[in-house]
Amino acid sequence: MTQSFWCDPDNESNYKPLNFGIQNYSKTEIIYQYNQDGFRCDDFNLESSHPLLFMGCSHTEGVGLPIDEVYSYHIYKNYQDRLNIKIPFWSLGKGGTSIDYAARVLYDYCKLLKPKNIIYLMSGFYRREYCLSESYSGWFPNPSPLYNASQDFKNVSKLFSNPFFAAYESYRSLIILNFIAKNIGCKIYLFDLYSYTDKERQFMEQTKEFDQIIYTPLKNLVYNKNLLIPDKILSRPMKARDCSHYGARWHYVTSDAIWNFFKAKENL
Prior knowledge:
Blueprint: E1 2-4, E2 18-19, E3 22-23, E4 32-34, E5 52-56, H1 58-61, H2 71-83, E6 90-91, H3 99-113, E7 117-122, E8 128-130, E9 137-139, H4 151-160, H5 163-184, E10 187-192, H6 198-205, E11 213-217, H7 231-234, H8 248-265
Parallel strand pairs: 5-6, 5-7, 7-10, 10-11
Antiparallel strand pairs: 1-4, 2-3, 8-9
Helix pairs in contact: 2-8, 3-5
């Protein structure tokens, strides 16, 4: 295990004592602890009788939050408590990643982890992954300080921002995800965070043809208006420590909605 108090874009140079008028997390309050494979979760060599895996981008990694305030960890705890057993917390979430990344990384780890269920909070439709040298790089559809405006970046941007290309690439990655899930006997609960244009909604309709993927936009979930939010969560700022990502309250409410949907589908 390796650990750090910072994780881009939640870095010390961007730290602000106040988070939208509320006392921010301290500089040492959040510990990013990564396993031997570089993921913010338990080691992958642990045994699990009910392997549950989380996938996604920075929201799943929990950038700017303690791990016990991240939506995926809330769901993991609920799942573990419902089963009344101890299982490892496994997550392939990485900030700034795309559905291309999800397909590649699941292929890399599916045989090791053998998940029975995957909860995947999908990142942006237009995000891509490309490899022009020896390593993979991520691409955002909007200017971001995370990525340098290199010539390589400019060359791929025009193609990647085309909605037809984005639909083609995303659909191809879904085919890969569905194929992997079928081969390991796994179901993927795909939750979509974003609203889309007509072209993107058309693509999302295509997810219905995949037998291993259960696609649900977050906005279609039923949120419990009477949900009792712990005082610790209510006392937190509305945003994560980087003052950009969603805060502890969003994660708690979202985790409850996803958990109730997942629990009903799995008859837990």
